[in-house]
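Render this sequence as a predicted structure.
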Amino acid sequence: MSLRIQEGFSTDLEKRGPAVIQWTEIYVSGFIVARGLHAGAGKNKRSDQMSYFSRLTDIVTCDLTQLLEQAEDPKVAILEIVREMREGVAGAQRSVNTASASEKQLRLEIETHQAQVEFWTTRAIDQIQGGSETEARQSLLRKREVEHLIAGLDQQHKAAVITEKHLSTMQLALEARLSDALRRQETLGVTPQSPSVPHYLDARPAAKNGIHREIDEEIERLKRNLK
């Protein structure tokens, strides 16, 4: 089962002035399973020739040191880089939310159909006990139809799980890049345009992905190794 994600920016010329629209398409085994358009994602964005990143993967694979070294004004550059990275993280979060909702919907649908399988099985048993073998056969045919449907939904659900995991991994990578850029921004003495602490580190009780708990556990492991 292969996973492929295509993303980019297109221009909407029907509005007054070109508006940049970010789009994302997710394919599993050659079939598209999700498509998203993020209108306004490019608001106040510089032209494509001046933009640092055109895809989320560009953020993950970028060499931040090289970008700043090549910039005419590193302080101006880091502000734009951070802004684009924040947009990327926000877009990734939307994609994760969409994938998570899709996975949940498929899982609930499978559970509903599994209940129908049990219903038709029980009904067939009752019909056999009542001497209605013809009706029992019809019930078992209905049961078989539902089982075939479940098999198809199960494949879709597995694809949705893979997609959600991939997108979550991508989001964590983007957040790591953003954290690095924010540290560079502070080193350059640039006043941040927004709080420098990434949103997933803001509130300890609701820390995203349990990152604080994982760090606490790692600290405890390191302490034990030092004894």
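Summary. The chain has one domain: 3-193. The chain has a mean pLDDT of 78.
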